[in-house]
Write a structure and sequence with these properties.
binds adenosine-5'-triphosphate; 8-stranded mixed sheet; alpha/beta; binds magnesium ion; 8 strands; Rossmann fold; globular; single chain
């Protein structure tokens, strides 16, 4: 296997094995997946921690949380990357007012600096953001793995990953490829969000990635019974709450970063990152 772990030899070796059957019992496509995972691992070798921000339910605030976690950690002095892993609807660049920012199409791809955080999104590779990306599952999975394999993050303390909603192909592929240290589950006070958050958490557990904790977004100031149910069912902890605020939506529309623009949101995220970076659940 050793020779095959070098990116440059992958296609050739794969072909050769297919032709001559050097790996009895190892299907070439299986081998390809292993090799790709290995190459992604090498690309992320200098990234100390990878945190996935996840919820099976759409619209609960995953992107909002991912961005604010990244900038809060960065403000504390950590070296941080922010990966937009939502291929269908990559929103991170819009949230950050970076819609016109492009990654140079040179390999390896380099994330773009935004106020000290390294940001990478497939939206930075396409010209027309409004065009819907209509791809079937296998192509989305391939896009994600190609993107991960070719992006050079350099040295990071934390890579925060904004995951797409759902429990199907796209989030699953990323979870498998990235070897995340753990997940932050985002929910809102409603029962429907709680049910889906439990589903998200159980999926994360099946991927053997620990759940770092649960965040109640769009909160009225006190975690709801539904959120408490999520925390207890997943045997996790509440990392914090983020209040529902019209200003948050306004700032989003202006491409402003909440924790850098609103002291109350900043405090809420300080509580959350203190729990993530210290204590029992330290990653
Ligand atoms: N605490 C909050 N107060 C007010 N508005 C919020 C809050 N959090 C998020 N929003 C708004 O709710 C909408 C959905 O948020 P966001 O895009 O972060 O959710 P998401 O879970 O990433 O959605 P998707 O599943 O589509 O990726 C956005 O318009 C955002 O500005
Ligand atoms: Mg999102």
């Amino acid at each position: 296997m050793e020779d095959n772990e070098h990116a440059g030899h992958a296609a050739h070796t794969d072909h050769a094995q297919h032709q001559h059957g050097h790996q009895p019992g190892m299907h070439p496509s299986f081998l390809r997946v292993i090799q790709q995972k290995q190459r992604i691992k090498q690309k992320l070798a200098k990234v100390k921690h990878r945190i996935g921000v996840y919820s099976a339910k759409g619209g609960v605030g995953k992107t909002t949380v991912a961005i604010n976690l990244a900038f809060s950690l960065s403000k504390k002095g950590f070296r941080v990357g922010l990966l937009d892993a939502d291929i269908d609807c990559p929103n991170v660049t819009m949230f950050l007012g970076m819609e016109d920012t492009k990654m140079e199409p040179v390999m390896p791809l380099k994330p773009v600096d935004k106020e000290g955080v390294k940001v990478a999104s497939t939206a930075m590779l396409v010209d027309e953001l409004k065009r819907p990306i209509i791809w079937r599952g296998p192509l989305v999975a391939k896009m994600i793995s190609d993107f991960l394999e070719n992006t050079d993050w350099g040295e990071l303390d934390y890579l925060v990953v904004d995951l797409p909603p759902g429990t199907s192909d796209a989030p699953l592929s990323i979870m498998q490829l990235l070897d995340l240290d753990g997940f932050v589950i985002v929910t809102n006070p409603q029962r429907i969000a709680a049910m889906n958050s439990i589903r998200s958490g159980l999926m994360a557990k099946r991927m053997n990635a620990p759940i770092l904790g649960v965040i109640e977004n769009m909160s009225n100031g006190k975690p709801s019974k539904n959120t408490e149910n999520v925390v207890s069912t997943l045997q996790s902890e509440l990392l914090g709450i983020i209040r529902a605020r019209p200003e948050v939506a306004d700032l989003t529309d202006r491409g402003a970063i909440h924790v850098l623009s609103n002291r109350d949101v900043e405090k809420e995220f300080d509580t959350i990152i203190t729990k993530i970076t210290s204590g029992e659940r330290k990653v």
